[in-house]
Amino acid sequence: MRSRLLALVAALSALPLALAAAPPAHAADPTTMTNGFYVDPDSSAKRWVAANPGDGRAPAISASVANTPTARWFGSWSGTIGTATGAYVGAADARDKLPILVAYNIYNRDYCGGHSAGGASSPSAYTNWIAQFAGGIAGRPAVVVLEPDSLGDYGCMTQAQIDEREAMLTGALSEFNRQAPHTWVYLDAGNPAWASAATMATRLHEAGVRQAHGFSLNVSNYLTTAENTAYGNAVNSELNARYGYTKPFVVDTSRNGNGSNGQWCNPSGRRIGTPSRLGGGAEMLLWIKVPGESDGNCGVGTGSSAGQFLPEVAYKMIYGY
């Protein structure tokens, strides 16, 4: 990216001062500013492979999971958040690669489900956190998935809590627009099994998706790419009919190779899906959840905690059993 930026600066220097001083358009395409997606060098799968070189499962997990470009999730465990996001996107930028980040720290996170409960201590704490998150990225290219599950998790919430959450998301999008001009932000929209397309379009709009680059689908879930593409198109039809605009969308394909068996929490018999790439019926197919990371204390991950890497689960996902 740096060589392209130097060329841009040189070109701007020849322009009239008033034009050269104008700020860049928001969200220049980060996929054209980089050469492929970034592989997280410190993912849970990478760490497990490095710590278990003699394990018979390690070669397959290394080849099929640990070296596939996958998102890194950021939350309360990330330390000083601006430093953390800055270091991550900086490392990717130094390699001319596009990093995928997940912001997962909203106040009252997973309020109804509870398996991934937590998040910021208050709405104001979240506002400060997400502002630092965006500031750490600054002008470098990135993709951000904003708060998985946040718009599907309404079943036990009061209207006041819903309004509060939507205000936090709208504010977050404003921060990325202000501070991270080369970041594509996708506001999470759950999955086809969670809410109707009409309901999700309303929730997206009320949470400010007009400010976002797009929306994300199937994060940490197992539904097929075809199901998600049909749903994304239906959501866009509703957005267009109700509000007069549409948005690009991305699909998490990390664990949807066998589709869903109707269970969402560590189901058996699932398989890794199409690795991160452009296109595929959506704007991008991305690995957002690391295959093998637990959804919580449930299913084949009984006894584990959300986010814990389970090598046997990852190994079985490679082969679909």
Give the integer mean of the pLDDT values. 91
Tell me the β content: 5-15%
Category from helices, strands and their pairing? alpha/beta
**What pattern of helices and strands is seen along the backbone?**
HHHHEHEHEHEHEHEEEH
Shape: globular
Largest sheet: 8 strands, mixed
Q: What are the low-pLDDT stretches, counting only 5+ consecutive residues below 50? A: 2-25
Strand order of the largest sheet: 1-2-3-4-5-6-8-7
* Strands, total number: 8
First-to-last CA distance: 41 Å
The helix fraction, in percent, is 25-40%
Number of helices: 10
Radius of gyration: 19 Å
Compile the SSE list and pairings.
Layout: H1 2-13, H2 17-20, H3 44-51, H4 58-66, E1 72-74, H5 81-94, E2 100-103, H6 123-137, E3 142-146, H7 159-179, E4 183-188, H8 197-206, E5 214-217, H9 225-243, E6 249-252, E7 277-278, E8 284-286, H10 311-319
Parallel strand pairs: 1-2, 2-3, 3-4, 4-5, 5-6, 6-8
Antiparallel strand pairs: 7-8
EC number: 3.2.1.-
Signal peptide: 1-27
Family: Belongs to the glycosyl hydrolase family 6.
